[in-house]
Amino acid sequence: MAYTSKTLPLPLCPSGCNPPPAPARSVPAESGSKAAHSGETGEGANVKSDCFDRGELRFNEPMSAHVSWRAGGCAERCYIPTNLPDLAHYLASNSGLVHFVGLGSNLLVRDGGLSGTVILLHGALNHIKLAAEGLIYAEAGVSSPKVSSFAARHDLEGAEFLSGIPGTVGGALAMNAGCYGSETWQRVEKVLTINRQGELHERLPHEYEIGYRHVVLSVRSEPASTPHSSLLTPHPEEWFVAAWLRLQPGAGAASKQKIKGWLAKRMATQPLTQPNAGSVFRNPPGDHAARLIEACGLKGLTMGGAQVSEKHANFIVNLGQASASDIETLINTVQATVKEKQGVELVTEVRIVGKA
Ligand SMILES: Cc1cc2nc3c(=O)[nH]c(=O)nc-3n(C[C@H](O)[C@H](O)[C@H](O)COP(=O)(O)OP(=O)(O)OC[C@H]3O[C@@H](n4cnc5c(N)ncnc54)[C@H](O)[C@@H]3O)c2cc1C
Predict the structure, then answer these.
(1) If I label 90, which of 19, 175, 316, 327 is the partner at 20 to 30 A Cα–Cα?
(2) What would the pLDDT profile of 159-204 be if each residue is shown by its tens digit?
(3) What is the whole-number distance in angstroms between the Cα of residue 89 and the centre of ligand 1?
(4) Count of CB atoms within 10 A of residue 24's CB?
(5) 276 lines ligand 1 (CB under 6 A)
(6) CA-closest residue to ligand 1 atom 41
(7) Which residues belong to CATH 3.30.43.10 in the chain?
């Protein structure tokens, strides 16, 4: 792979212990773990890994606990790193499929679950600081609303729109999340990424193809012989671990006022008391998915435990016991009906992954 940006050395453990040499790449992730030896691999079984590898490895982890729809199957394995050096070491010393997940606020995991290892960043890479005047450094696990309030507290303007987007910085980068006329990548000065080997790279925005809910690393690379992730991330073998966001000097009080107003607007127009994943479909050029869905009379349509929200037609809510299959069937039905009655092919904004 030809990287165009800075390649950085592997980070060291903050507590001072050096990473042990990586075992052969063919060693399965949990082969040396306590869980593997004890046979403790039932649903929710977990193990604290030793020494450098101090993150938490779980087996058959219900992804319903990690996605905002509160539905769906299990991840075969789930790793929660303690920090960036730990994540780098985990990737370098374990082979197989990995999937990066933030707060799961744009994700549906099918009921058959996900094979491989889900890496959960929220609560792990959660460091945020002022890196320089007007420049915020935020790790990928920091929530977007936290970036918004941090900026307001430091009298910086331009991150208010992130206040109502309930995901992480990593998810916002991967999705180019946005609203009220602003998008994440308009604020990005550079990003820090990690690859399947645990190597870090600083990258600049011009290295990505960026559009409406669309981000793809445009660096040319040889296709991997085996794909390492089934999620549609900007690159199948490289993920975001931090970003530097450039903001303008502003007034904290004005930013807080703007945030308050936008959150109130969301409360009034979105079904925020029921599990959902935000807008299910992208807006087609020059139109709104919600308008098209409503025009087809689909508000309130229910399949199993999933319902097209009565409050906002582009939201699907979990009434309590929805399966991922209920949600996906409803998505497909809405798509087919809008195509038939309005002649418009709606494209999903939410990412649907895993086995049925
Ligand atoms: C109530 C509600 C309102 C919403 N409003 C908006 C809105 O106004 N605007 C908007 O754009 N979205 C909105 N969303 C959708 C969602 O919050 C955003 O897409 C958000 O940025 C997703 O972040 P996440 O951490 O939850 O990502 P996840 O759902 O966990 O993941 C989404 C995708 O990003 C990838 N990903 C996650 N972390 C990384 C990483 N570190 N590196 C590489 N890839 C990664 C995942 O693999 C997956 O493909 C809303 C959702 C809800 C529930």
Answers:
(1) 175
(2) 999 999 999 999 999 999 999 999 999 999 999 999 999 999 999 9
(3) 25
(4) 7
(5) yes
(6) 170
(7) 7-120
